[in-house]
Amino acid sequence: MSVPGITVPETAWCVRRVERDCLKRSPDSGDTMTMDTGVTCWLMVSALLVMLMTPGVGLFYGGLVRKKNFISMIALSFVSLALASIHWVLIGYSLAFGPDIGGIIGDLDFLGLSGVSADAGSGMYPQLVFMVFQLFFAAVTITIVTSAVAERIKLSSYIVFCLAWLTVVYCPLAHWAWGGGWAQQMGLIDFAGGTVVEICSGFAALGLACVIGRRAGYGKYALEPHNIPIALVGAALLWFGWFGFNAGSALAVNSSAAVAFVNTNSAAAAGTLTWMFASWYRGKPSSLGMVSGAIAGMVAITPAAGFVTPLVAIFIGAVAGVLCYFMMLVRIGQKFDESLDAWAIHGMGGLWGTLATGLFAVAAFGGYTGLFGGNPHQFFVNALAAGVAVAYAFCMTYLVGFAIDRTLGLRVTEDEEYVGLDICQHGERA
Questions:
Q1: What is the CATH number of domain 35-426?
Q2: What would the pLDDT profile of 3-42 be if each residue is shown by its tens digit?
Q3: Least packed by Cβ within 10 Å: which of 31, 335, 372, 420?
């Protein structure tokens, strides 16, 4: 079964079966199946794990900023979750997963979740459950982008940016990779979001940082983290939630979920150690560097989670730890204030992971082979999709940010930035 108007190759990712469910059913169509309660429960639990990652990002980022902006960073994560939830129900899910229009975007058949069934489809789980699972992916992705604007964005402007960005950046990318768009039609394999979440958020943060500019005092005096233990707690929530993020993306309780579960932890551990040793070589092995390495490892394994062996997952995570560490040093050396390193970790880690998927995918895990398995086409498709995602996320985010900056203004005033966003935006103190 396929969505009318979508031509998906026979080798298209069998795990991403949502296009088979994206048929607008009438109550009397009879196009339902017996619900697999185990699969449905697993998807709901995975959705909750992914949801937990959004406040996890808030805590991680909140610990990395100065005390006067701590509440602001956590508040941005909750605002992101709330806005994404409403946006996804109204139009987001339909734009991302509605029947395809020209390989670019979904139509509005599912506007306001019209036709999104609570009955089981061909995957033996309700499309409604898949919808909310993907909702939390959107929420955590936009939350990662707040790295670019830490300590200096107006809440009102962020609300407008969030809604616009989800519509014109995230939804198209999700449709291209997972909803029957051009990349999926070409054969892109992206298990849990190397392009859709990681490249998208990292390079979007880079584009937005170019618009909003440096924080006041950046490069003149130290802007040090105010509470590293809080950041470590946030990172722990991310590590925990990532099991639902990756293993849940199998959309079943099967071998792909098991492989993704193991690979997620293996890559995180490898990233932790390589970032630690790389930073140790240059000075002291900070705890913050260790958890940053763990996140880098999980970012990189995200697109490959169900497609590679655990040993390859360790290699992918290990390379990510070193790569993202040095990309952070490049960013600092260039005195570029993408404040909390979403570009270095999520952008570059996601780019490496998407390319690595095209290199190392093996038929025994997911049914796909990469370049080293004798399939250069897979690497070409993944590289092309990654390149397009980089350019699109950066350019479109820059344009959205530029438009808002010229109309509403992105930044608080210099005096408000000096006082801190907790007081001037929320009237609260940490």
A1: 1.10.3430.10
A2: 333 333 333 344 444 443 443 333 334 455 788 999 999 9
A3: 335
